[in-house]
Amino acid sequence: MTRRYGFSLLHWLPPRAGRAPWLGDEVYRTSEGFTIPPLEQGSETLLRELPLEARQEVGPDIHPKICRPGSVAMEVAGRMLGAGWTAHWYYDAEQRAVRRIGNTEPYSGLKVHPKSRGSLHGFAYVEAQPGTGHLLSTRRIEHLAERFEAFLGARTEGSHTGLAVTALTWGADAELRLMDPAQPDIPCTQVFIHPRSGKTLLHGYRLETEGVRLHLDSARLTDFINSEIERQRDHPDGRWHRGQMFRYLIGSQARVAGINAYEANRTAELLFSAAGRPDLRDKLRGLVRRWDAQTLRELLQQTFSEMLACHPLLSERRVDRLAGALGDRKFQRVFADALEAVRSDEQFAGYLRSVLIHSLAIRVKQAFVLHGRGDERQVLVHAKLPVQFSADAEDIITVAENGAHGDGTTRMFAENLETALEEWSSGALAECPNAREDALIEDAFRHTDRHAAWRALDPRDPDKMAGLATELGLGSTPEAAPMQGVMRLIYGSESFGAERFDLYSLHREIRSVDARLREAMAREPSQWELVSATVRAAADGNDTTPRLAAQLRAYQGLEDATLEESLGAEARLADQVYRLSARLCVDGCQGCLHSGSELMADTLAESAVSRRLLGRFVRSIT
């Protein structure tokens, strides 16, 4: 839903499950149709330009023209006045469809909530005419790139640039939230079809634009990936990356089993955690040998209650509903294929290569926007990753302006290219300010023998803090260094009534839980695995978390406070644990690689990028 077209009115396109037209008949009658070379050559050729997970969804029966809508007729979803919401639509549970509210008022709990959300399924097709690119310098990045070229038009109006981009959309996912919080969210997946032919109808637009293409050194990529596979054998990094690969495969292939993208994300989260604990991992393997819907349900419920009870996107009701959707035999095939792929070194190599190229693509796009003085909303990135294209993958990154003939961003980037290359050669591709702050905190808490002396210092004394910064290797100007996190954990405190809780003691207890999890799982725990385990230890009165247990009791004793659901005592403690334990950048964050990707949904992108893998690659070529 959007408020873009009205101050108090919210507009939307009502979702429809299954194969159905996206827009109204009048829009299709007045819309233009166009084609692209792969579509002219047949559906099989076009499907090779789309990711693997999209090919079965789109199918071979494709309408011969791509629809370029000239307008979109949206519906009024409801009216928002202050905090009050008046819905114009409700969910018909019997027909499993969204209906407009008519003369008969439906049960208010089934009315559509304004926080319902949706996302499109799409990808870009890139055409680069050979010989039309202008070669750019690869000085300082010779070991990274075989060729770097810019596609620029002449100064005359309408001149050809040699680079064309077609944005394609073929479906959508939606998740309806209803006004009654006891009602489950309703997943809805739609594939767009032509209103008359019934064939899958691609929507989109095509433009000739300016941009750059970076041709990576394939041989060097292969050598690095092979060395990484050997290094990661029986190593926590290997278990982490294979777990992330499993998470990506479940999330990307679940649509084949009819699982909505939002449900797929929760499924991947649960199964990733289950695979990290030996007893649950054995149950996962047992499901491959003998599939049983009830066993899967029990496994998911056990994983949630014992490992992810504090996860904000999961609840008992959601997990139970998810288990019902996953019991189908179609998901068994997705599940078995994912486990088999994770065990294969060949497929793992393709995943690592994809992660590396994807991470590079995002960093190149960021540099393109920064040094081209552009708008990141008007720039897109394209690459054909092995996990998405298999044998059709390419080691080429394209960054293009999302506007006809560009707005000068490419030209400005080409002018400032030497500055960008100098930054890349000095390691900027893998740098992250949040990761630097995380490393500082980690280093500070390794020096436990100095903690008593540090805690005795006055944090309000600039000279004392300058001395602490020097001791931590930051020089004598703490105000210019990422000292806030360290100072908060060493000197910060919170009070409940007469009882004071030092953040230092709480953080130390969280670190002890983290150490036990790492040993038990033989990999790094995810953030919500750590939060859930810590809250569980405090609730059980574990002797390693006495101050956290005391804080939980303090939350439970709050007078005149709501202690239900997200405001319950354990939820409040989970929020505190998250703030004290969360590293700003585990293996990517919004300060480096989690800035959005046109190659896949954000939930998938988080398991398909890696700052640490990118860092090792950059160090290997500099």
Unreliable segments (pLDDT under 50, ≥5 consecutive)? none
Separate helix tally: 25
Beta-strand content estimate: 15-25%
What overall form do the CA principal axes indicate? globular
CA radius of gyration is 26 Å
- Quaternary state, please? single chain
Mean pLDDT: 91
First CA to last CA: what distance? 47 Å
Major sheet characteristics: 5 strands, mixed
Helix content: 40-55%
Number of strands: 19
The class by helix and strand makeup works out as: alpha+beta
Task: Report on this structure.
This protein is an alpha+beta fold and 622 residues long. Among the domains are: 9-208, no CATH class; 433-581, no CATH class. Helix content is 44%, strand content 17%. The chain has 25 helices and 19 strands. The strands form six sheets. Strands 2, 9, 12, 13 and 14 form a five-stranded mixed sheet that branches. Strands 10-11-15-17-16 form a five-stranded antiparallel sheet, covered by helices on one side. Strands 1-5-6 form a three-stranded antiparallel sheet, with no helix packed on it. Strand 5 (75-81) and strand 6 form a beta hairpin. Helix 21 packs across helix 22 (546-556). The protein is globular. The chain starts with 8 loop residues before the first strand and ends with a helix.
